[in-house]
Design goal:
- The complex is a heterodimer of chains A (about 130) and B (about 900).
- Chain A is about 45% helix and about 20% strand.
- Chain A is α/β, with parallel strands linked by helices and about 130 residues long.
- Chain A has a single domain, classed as Response regulator (Rossmann fold, 3-Layer(aba) Sandwich), CATH 3.40.50.
- Chain A has a five-stranded parallel β-sheet, with helices on both faces.
- In chain A, α2 packs parallel to α3.
- The N and C termini of chain B lie far apart (about 140 Å).
- With about 900 residues, chain B is of the alpha/beta class.
- Chain B has 26 helices and 34 strands.
- Classes of the chains: A alpha/beta (about 130), B alpha/beta (about 900).
- At the A-B interface, α1 of A face α11 of B.
């Protein structure tokens, strides 16, 4: 746990192009983050070692490899095991949420989200995780 | 009786009162006169067998009394009697000798040799009759005899004629058709009015008919029957059909008897018209058949069940709805048909239905032909001591229900993805992220954005209600102060009220009253009621909230001063998408699901929700939920001499521990070293020990091992109190050394007292307090018997009772039946999680297997029919042990 770590670089893993665009605008223009977008879990696993994001925003329902599996793969790789992950999904039943937390996600953002608030939400989760 | 001369009559005809008038007896008179005159006797007469005079002739003027003694003798002996001189003959009676001297008497016989009377001659001087005279007299007697018999026959035939007339009347008027025919020709001799009515002919017409002609085609069989009459004498109830005069078919049942009329073989026919009977029978049969057919197409199985569970009768179903294939269910018991658990459920429902005279409905699953099927049983009271059980296969309905729920869930999820994009894009545009927009475009985007928000709310609500109703939504129950929550809700909605110029006022307060609920869910209910009241309030009005309560329940009222709810809408108010005016959905901005969600939530919290309304005046929505009574941590007042030994090297901590324990009513001594502890243990009996892991002269765990191996101290339960975090190695030690609890420093007083109390209880042979939630008295008494040695059992027969018990008592374990009369046992689960880290373990002991989601929530599942007594005990012991262990783990975290 690295206290006070700054959140700058985010990797979005999302297969819906429309949602990619919205998140990109919301996080870059409103949140001021640096964002890279991947369309699948596999792509993300390849991109992370290069990009080394502070945070991965991970969709649950993804083609081929779903979000939770992707997260397990991230955790299994010592190079990226420490990267924080927030799930962004429409599947937000209480037991599903607790499942995500068990897998090691630091938080969940439910879809549909409010684009004007998403950056603030992410910052809040980040700060909480920092113990601030 | 006296012989009386009747003067003035030629030939002195003597008569008596008995035979005064009779012309019939004229002949007899002539006989006695002939006898008297020819034999020159002064007096001749004929008596009856009763010794009264029938006819007499006298040519004397005398009033001598008659003496019938000799006549009696003739009657008795049935022989003629001649006495020449009565004064010389032996006396025949007590009477003095008669005045007459000669007596001659001849008996008169009937055809059957009974004496009818006597022909007598008497003279007042002694006489003797020669043979010719005797013969003459006997001839006269024979004549008299003949005459008397003839009279008798005449009289008899006169009587017979009279009786014939009577019979004839009866015959004619009898309501039964009767006819008499000659057997040979079949011709009618006579028929009564009923018979005529039956045939439609008048008497004259009928008498020209024969039975063959009357019966027509269908007569053949009847003729055959008639032929047998000669042999059998009679036959009865032969059914035939014939056409009457009007050509109508009549169905009759005939009985015939052979008789003789004037020596001719004949027969008597008695009939019964059953045509109408048949018609009504047929109508009944048709109606029964129709009902039967209707009944048979009902797919349900119906069982008439006695209060003892005996099947009295049943209507089979087309497909088998039972786990067994039985040829005939009548006489079987429920236990022959269902496995014991389910049979008990049936039986208890049957009894419950009979006790309360109300219909009971329950559902269950069975595996039939290798597939899981859902059933609904409806128990209807159908008599004093019996019920009708209607069993229905509801597999399809259940499947559809599940599919519907899944569908809703999937669709809602699928809808969310595109909606995420729509809402997101609109949100960014409206938020001005891409720059300032022209006013008109901004207005339209606002509309689109607002409606996308509404769509999101709608989908969320649909999902929400589906989750609550399907039981997928887990409630995070805790005790809450209801007033604080209401105030919080008012605060949260104040801004919303300002939009409508509506203010809120808490009119009745109820501080300090606790409820046990999921805070967010209860807030959701309050917010819904408050925002609803706000929406329907006139401008500048006040929405009033009041809290009232009893010892057991609290009621929250939310009152608006709006228009009230229209009558026609009142019974739909809690239905989904119900809004009085569909245009309201838009104007008021709701989803139409708020109240149904509120209702679902309140019901999950064990409460009710309802409303009172008056058109033009306003509406009050209210809900009532149970009050939660906080339970002090100490379970019971510690017993006297509950001394605890505190082993603690730090004097200050030792003092703190002893203060805490003394406050809770324990007696406490402090040992600062292991040596001191051993000395104290020899001086005084302790019922619990708290032990620090670090002691100056000995490691705490090694001291513990010593204590456990000494007979004097091995039974004293130990609670570890330590600043040291338990290691894996310690864990093994704990398991082998039977530590009650492991409490970390800083010390939590509640936990310490609880642990020491538990330890003391164990020392005093405390039995775990088990709540058995079970509505079947038979099952619960069996379980109580099995567990009585290891646990103290309290039985709750209803969920209501269980909730009350859980509020007022502490239980170590709950055994739960799922099919309770007032709901599913699972609805108790939220009540078992009273304090954090103090979850009451649950063993489900029920009929059916459980869904996976449920399995995760309980500690063990036992299926009634498949669980042996030993397994039940083992499971419960294991769970009590595991519970202690869980607490240990918790304390170490």
């Amino acid at each position: 746990m690295i206290a006070g770590k700054m959140l700058e670089k985010i990797l979005l893993v999302e297969d819906e192009v429309d949602i990619q665009i919205i998140v990109q605008i919301a996080l870059e223009r409103i949140g001021g983050f640096k964002l890279k977008v991947c369309s699948s879990g596999k792509e993300a696993l390849l991109a992370i070692p290069d990009y080394m994001p502070d945070l991965v925003l991970l969709d649950v329902m993804l083609p081929e490899m779903d979000g939770p599996t992707t997260l397990k793969q991230i955790r299994a790789n010592p190079l990226m095991a420490d990267i924080r992950v927030i799930f962004m999904t429409a599947k937000v039943q209480p037991q599903e949420i607790s499942q995500y937390i068990k897998l090691g996600a630091i938080g969940v953002i439910s879809k549909p989200f409010d684009p004007m608030m998403i950056a603030a939400n992410i910052k809040n989760i980040w700060r909480e995780c920092n113990g601030e | 009786m006296y012989i009386k001369n009747q003067p003035g009559q030629n030939g002195k005809h003597i008569d008596t009162s008995a035979s005064s008038n009779s012309n019939k007896d004229e002949l007899l008179y002539r006989i006695v006169r002939t006898a008297a005159e020819t034999l020159r006797m002064p007096f001749a007469f004929i008596t009856r067998a009763s010794l009264t005079l029938r006819a007499s002739y006298c040519n004397l003027e005398t009033e001598n009394p008659l003496d019938f003694s000799y006549c009696q003798q003739v009657i008795d002996s049935k022989k003629p009697l001649y006495i020449s001189d009565t004064h010389k003959a032996p006396a025949v009676s007590q009477n003095p000798p008669p005045l007459f001297r000669f007596y001659g008497g001849i008996p008169l016989f009937s055809h059957d040799y009974n004496v009818l009377g006597v022909l007598c001659l008497i003279d007042y001087k002694p006489r003797r009759l020669n043979n010719v005279q005797r013969q003459l007299l006997e001839d006269l007697a024979a004549w008299a005899e003949n005459e008397i018999n003839l009279l008798k026959i005449k009289k008899a035939s006169a009587m017979a004629r009279e009786s014939d007339t009577r019979f004839s009347k009866v015959f004619r008027a009898a309501p039964i058709p009767i006819a008499i025919n000659f057997l040979e020709s079949g011709e009618f001799i006579e028929a009564n009015d009923s018979f005529l009515k039956l045939t439609g002919y008048n008497r004259a017409e009928l008498l020209k008919y024969t039975i063959v002609k009357l019966l027509g085609n269908s007569s053949k069989e009847h003729i055959d029957q008639l032929k047998k009459l000669i042999l059998d004498g009679a036959f009865y109830n032969h059914e035939i059909t014939f056409k009457n005069k009007n050509g109508e078919l009549r169905e009759v049942v005939l009985s015939c008897e052979a008789i003789e009329i004037d020596g001719e073989p004949s027969f008597l026919t008695m009939g019964r018209d059953v045509t109408d009977d048949r018609l009504s029978r047929e109508a009944l049969r048709r109606s029964v058949a129709t009902n039967r057919a209707l009944f048979d197409v009902i797919p349900d199985l119906m069982l008439r069940i006695s209060q003892d569970g005996l099947i009295l009768n049943y209507k089979p179903s087309k497909e088998s709805l039972l786990p067994v294939a039985l040829e005939n269910l009548i006489g079987c018991t429920l236990f022959d048909i269902f496995e014991p658990g389910l049979a008990s459920v049936y039986l208890s429902n049957v009894r419950e239905a009979l006790n309360n005279r109300e219909t009971r409905v329950f559902e269950y699953q069975l595996v039939i032909d290798n597939s899981i099927r859902d059933f609904e049983a409806r128990i209807v009271v159908s008599g004093e001591n019996e019920t009708l059980a209607i069993l229905r296969d509801i597999t399809e309905r259940k499947t559809v229900e599940r599919m519907k729920n899944e569908f809703i869930s999937i669709v809602s999820h699928e809808l969310r993805t595109p909606l995420t994009s729509i809402r997101g894009s609109l949100g960014l545009l409206v938020g001005g992220v891409v720059g300032e927009l022209p006013d008109q475009a901004k207005m339209m985007l606002d509309i689109a954005h607002k409606n996308s928000e509404r769509l999101v709310r709608l989908i969320n609500d649909i999902l929400d209600i589906e989750k609550i109703e399907s039981g997928k939504s887990s409630f995070n129950m805790k005790s809450l102060e209801i007033q604080a929550l209401v105030e919080q809700a008012l605060e949260a909605n104040r801004g919303y009220g300002e939009l409508y110029n509506v203010s809120f006022k808490l009119t009745k307060k109820l501080p300090g009253v606790m409820v046990y609920a999921d805070q967010d869910r209860l807030m959701q209910v309050l917010a819904n009621l408050i925002s609803n009241a706000t929406k329907f309030s006139p401008k500048d009005s006040v929405v009033e909230i009041s809290l009232t309560g009893t010892q057991h329940s609290v009621r929250v009222d939310v009152t608006d001063h709006g228009n009230g709810i229209p009558k026609e809408f009142r019974n739909r108010i809690f239905q989904k998408f119900a809004q009085a005016d569909s245009s309201d959905t838009r104007s008021k901005g709701g989803t139409g699901l708020g109240l149904s969600i509120a209702k679902a939530i309140v019901e999950k919290l064990g409460g009710i929700i309802n409303f009172e309304t008056e058109e033009g005046k306003g509406t009050t929505f209210y809900f009532v939920i149970p009050v939660w009574h906080e339970i002090p941590v100490t379970k019971e007042n510690p017993q006297e001499n509950t001394a605890v030994l505190i082993c603690e090297d730090d004097a200050e901590i030792g003092l703190l521990l002893s203060m805490m324990l003394k406050q809770a009513g324990f007696e406490a001594d402090i040992a600062q070293t292991a040596l001191q502890a051993r000395q104290l243990l020899q001086l005084k009996p302790y019922s619990a020990i708290t032990l620090d892991v670090m002691l100056p002269d000995q490691d705490g765990l090694s001291l513990l091992r010593d204590l456990k191996s000494s007979e004097a101290t091995m039974n004293i339960p130990v609670v570890m109190v330590s600043a040291k975090t338990r290691s894996n190695q310690d864990l093994t030690q704990i398991a082998t050394l039977q530590i009650v609890d492991w409490i970390e420093k800083p010390i939590d007083q509640e936990r310490l007292i609880e642990a020491v109390q538990l330890a003391a209880n164990i020392f005093y042979g405390y039995k775990p307090n088990v709540l058995h939630v079970e509505d079947d008295a038979d099952v619960s008494s069996v379980v109580s018997a099995i567990l009585s040695n290891i646990a103290h059992i309290t039985i709750a027969a209803t969920l209501k009772q269980a909730r009350r018990l859980l509020r007022n008592q502490v239980f170590d374990l709950v055994i739960l039946d799922l099919d309770m009369p007032d709901g599913s046992g699972l609805s108790l689960l939220p009540y078992l999680n009273k304090a954090p880290g103090h979850k009451i373990p649950v063993v489900v002991f029920s009929v059916s297997d459980l869904e996976e989601a449920v399995v995760a929530k309980v500690d063990a599942i036992l299926i009634k029919s498949r669980t042996s007594n030993a397994a039940l005990i083992d499971t419960i012991k294991a769970i009590i042990r595991r519970t202690r262990f869980k607490r240990l783990e918790h304390s170490v975290k």
